[in-house]
Specification:
Helices cover 41% and strands 24% of the residues. It is α/β, with parallel strands linked by helices. It folds into two domains: 116 residues, Rossmann fold (3-Layer(aba) Sandwich); 97 residues, Winged helix-like DNA-binding domain superfamily/Winged helix DNA-binding domain (Arc Repressor Mutant, subunit A, Orthogonal Bundle), CATH 1.10.10. The strands form three sheets. The chain has a five-stranded parallel β-sheet with strand order 2-1-3-4-5, sandwiched between helices. A four-stranded antiparallel β-sheet has the order 6-7-8-9, covered by helices on one side. β7 and β8 form a beta hairpin. α2 runs parallel beside α3 and α6 packs across α7.
């Protein structure tokens, strides 16, 4: 599961990231409101943790922007503003939960788990499709007709990102950020290895969907009768 943490307090980010990692979550961090909107538009998250007071753009404005775009990812707003009207503004603005700082980390993690248990909007269905293949992102099972192949978490996240972008090119940097996480050192050959793994998985499905290398840029999905 991937959590996007939109927070400019470095110490709090480090503490939250540490606890989320212990629970098995991957965490991406944005410390600026303007950057956060762009990141949400370009990436997929399971939960967004959103500070209300941010440089560049405040949390309520970010919330309004993403809800107006039809992005229904669960959002928990965290803030030192604890008035009744503040909470009402946050929840009416589209937040799914509202947590006042300072908070106990155990309560924070419990609220994250509660959001993840909620039924997701059909717009966020875990089933992705491209041409004749489908990917169940809840268990990372890729299929074509009756044929099914189980993927590792990293293979699944990689293919999910390619399928979300359909035939658009994704750069190696974008893949690193989405699959391995921001600010994570990864040897360059690891991407090539996973591309090779996924190509073998697709070949085993007997599909014409293939992963096309765009030299010097990145990769994209392609449907070819010669695959």
């Amino acid at each position: 599961m991937r959590v996007l943490l939109i927070e400019d307090d470095t110490a709090l980010c480090e503490a939250i990231t540490l606890h989320l990692k212990k629970e098995g979550y991957q965490t991406d961090i944005c410390g600026n409101g303007e950057d956060a909107v762009y990141y949400i538009e370009k990436h997929t998250q399971d939960v967004i943790v959103l500070d209300r007071m941010l440089p560049g753009k405040d949390g309520l404005s970010i919330l309004n922007d993403i809800r107006d775009q039809g992005i229904t990812t669960p959002v928990i707003m965290v803030t030192a503003m604890n008035g009744i009207n503040d909470r009402i503004d946050g929840l009416d603005g589209g937040a799914d939960d509202y947590l006042v700082k300072p908070f106990a980390m155990d309560e924070f993690l419990a609220r994250i788990r509660a959001l993840l248990r909620r039924p997701r909007n059909m717009k966020n269905t875990p089933l992705l499709s491209y041409k004749d293949i489908s990917l169940d992102t809840s268990i990372y099972m890729v299929s074509k007709g009756e044929k099914q192949i189980s993927l590792s978490k990293r293979e699944g996240a990689f293919l999910e990102y390619l399928m979300l972008n359909q035939e658009n090119i994704v750069t190696r940097e974008q893949i690193l950020n989405r699959v391995w996480g921001l600010n994570t050192f990864v040897e360059d050959g690891n991407i090539d290895n996973y591309i090779s793994f996924l190509r073998r998985r697709l070949k085993a499905l007997d599909t014409h969907v293939c992963i096309k290398t765009v030299h010097g840029i990145g990769y994209r999905l392609e449907y070819s009768s010669h695959a």
